[in-house]
Design a protein that fits this description.
Blueprint (H helix, E strand, L loop, with lengths): L9 H12 L8 H10 L6 H14 L3 E4 L5 E4 L6 H13 L5 H12 L4 H4 L19 H14 L1 E12 L5 E18 L2 E8 L6 E4 L3 E10 L15 H5 L9 E10 L3 H8 L4 E5 L3 E10 L1 H8 L5 E5 L1 H17 L2
Antiparallel strand pairs: 1-2, 3-4, 3-7, 4-5, 5-6, 8-10, 8-11, 9-10
Length: 332
Amino acid sequence: MAVRRGQKIKLLYIIDILKKYSDEDHPISAVAICDELLKLGVTAERKAIYDDIEQLTDYGFDIIKTRVPKPGYFLASREFETPEIYLLGDAVRTAKFITPKKSRELVSKLQNMLSVYQTAGIESGIFIDSDSKCSNEEIYYNIDAISRAIKDKKKIKFNYGVRTLTEDRQIKTAYKERIISPYAQTWQDDHYYLIGNYEKYDNLVHFRIDRIRATEILDEEARPFSQVSDYTDCFDVADYTKRLFSMYGGKKEDVDFRCKKELLEQITDRFGDKIFIRNVTKTHFSFTAKAVVSDAFITFVLNYGDGIEVEKPEYLRNMIKARTEKILKIYE
């Protein structure tokens, strides 16, 4: 008796067919599975499919036999559920540091994890705003190299681009070499950042990874982050970034605020709901929070007009006053 072609990989084909052509609303029959297998060059009988599905179920695949809305089988659980794929797809489409080309590739890969019926409603809705995306196709290799350097505690070398305006009104990007001790990568304010130490200074600096070119891992050991930050055992990215404003570095301070009550949501979104609230009146509340003082922080405060007042430290109040006076002069 001749051996039927593809029998050894038939189970893998059946799983692929169930993933692509079945869901709770669209069960697929054993006969239809045989038809799909035949398209792949694999012959199978309906009765054999029952045994194959039983083996796949024993292995752990959540395959359900149903008679509603029609007799057949469907894959009841997947690596990601449909809302999760939609959520991840939207994140990819809107992430500025992912290039248009890579965005389309990633969205396509995500959709391939759903059935053809589940993706039918979103195929025509794919829109990638190329104008808001970066064009640096190196970013994925850079992220990989930086991750390996962080793991191995090695320094990295790269070229970092900064935009400049020429005399003939053209925007150019000038690149300078940087040698950095890398500690973490984080997605903040719609951009992907590298956090590390520039060897000339005793502080932390941030670099947008979409502006990095030609990353190279060096043999030199990275400087311990404990020498340039408050962290000792591990670099707490979440704790560090929540104190920053638009990823601007600066001096970390305990800042006393007085805010209107209607800004409570915005304040807790920014500083968290564990802030120390010192006082509450009918119209305002006062609290203390740690923040990194920078131009971006002052912009954050001024954004709320008379809704937020910085009470302490005094030097920060003076910085905010100076900024408002400069703005006032422009409109005088």
